[in-house]
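hey so i finally got around to running the thing on that chain from the lab meeting. sorry it took forever, my laptop kept dying and i had to restart like 3 times. anyway pasting the input first so we r on the same page abt which one it is
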Amino acid sequence: RNYYGGNWASFSFSGLLSWIKENKQKTDFSDECEDWRKLILENEEVICLRKKDKTIQHVEDFCFGDQNSAEDVEEAGALTKLPFSGVCGTEGVAQESEKDCPPMESALPEAESQEPEEAAGTEPASATEGNDTEITSENEGSHSTASGESALELGKTEAAPSEISAQEPKKITYSQIVREGRRFNIDLVSKLLYSRGLLIDLLIKSNVSRYAEFKNATRILAFREGKVEQVPCSRADVFNSRQLTMVEKRMLMKFLTFCLDYEQHPDEYQDYENSTFAQFLRTQKLTPSLQHFVLHSIAMVSETDCSTLEGLQATKKFLQCLGRYGNTPFLFPLYGQGEIPQCFCRMCAVFGGIYCLRHSVRCLVVDKESGRCKAIVDHFGQRISANYFIVEDSYLSESTCTNVCYRQISRAVLITDQSVLNTDSEPQVSILTVPPMDPGKPAVCVIELCSSTMTCMKDTYLVHLTCPSTKTAREDLEPVVQKLFNLNAEKETGNEELEKPGVLWAVYFNMRDSTGIDKKSYDGLPSNVYVCSGPDSALGSDCAVKQAETIFQEMFPSEEFCPPPPNPEDIIYDEDEIAEEESAFSNSPEKKPEPSTEESSSGGSTAVKKEDNEE
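ok and heres what got predicted. didnt touch it at all, straight out
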């Protein structure tokens, strides 16, 4: 691929259109040249890998405006996103870019977390609701170049929320979307980060969090009796809610308090351990509306398949995550979910990891005697030796996966002109669970992102819909889209309060879910080949974190998984190596720059600095 992250990637609008076109093509790549087989010895055999990704199916995209008007329109902005801008020479590039570009409306939003930590090295700074959150374990100083990519994304700046809310809604055309395409960062997989989830803990522990910024999900919504309404989930929300009566408030608070330490009260639920969570809720003193809120918007579990214990665990997890960074348990990374894999790429690159885009692997070379993978052959015909080989499931050929049974995820991405629940306040980041429309159908998770998340242009919203597949993505998700949105290009005039947001553009696709597959299900894989899955349909990323740690521990049982990186002051360099570098640098025709404070304190020529370029 020519981008990072596989099926975890994010695209600009034009990038997504190219991705759609690529996945609609049915042709496979031909392999006429067989010269590489000369590299295989007599005591070796090969395991060929797949030449084309087949994890994406049933791709359908729709424009609900005048698509012809955008035929000659080009995407604005010439700046290219630099995935490794935090690794080499970002400061100079950023300065050059600023010379060539006209001044923009504003820089990146100031993060609340620029205040020093109360306990350095443990907890990240807290952020008030709606503000951008930079997850760090200490004060990292100015983050204008902290995430590298963010500093260079001059074309993605947004107006202040107060300016946005003060302006009248504008009619957005397809040609505007194309022209402003670089302001979009559209995720292939839609997820949020639990504020006390495994991924947040890993980002903090490994210090990878310094390469990214986050925004709080500001509200939890529910779809009930044909209407979208806000769910009170924190103590303050419950007591300030006008939707609930005083009796309902007491009922809800009593039940949520029980869920926080339900293990201490087994007599309350042990008779219902074999029942579903929905059945258990009916036995509690909760009104139907409260049961709906708890089941679909707090626990976010299935009405038919979730056991009582699973529901209580999900409710407790939700409640434990409240208040760490805001009024909801969730965070969203600025510029999209695709930032997360790139952040780990940056940290890895600082310590010597090498990434090759557009560089495919033809086959694995296996020693017949030991049965271990000893090398790979790439598409240039060169042989690269390896002790371990880690591969995502999508690269394995059909012959290797004959006994593997996959699930599918149904996905839809919409660009809309309004929020599903308009308010007078600033634009919101919302999560909504739509209960099953028909028996046997799954609930649909809807995540609505505003322009302050740096994922869409001003005056638009980016809406992600996700559910486990029962049919094609369009068949699974279009009924929900029709319930929540208006698909007509021209809206009908009527009561503005009842007018649904309009869809400007949409894409549906099915994505393979390869999680939970035992390695033994794959035919003929050597013991030192490790298979990882693509994204799952869950809201969080716990599955990916657990899988990464499991594979790492199998390979290196005595090593710590993602340890904290050393401070620049603690790095000890070999004296001969330093002398050679200084000698080479002094002989350079260029004038030696004055060392910065960070460089001086860490010994000079090559130091991993806190927030500037890492070279």
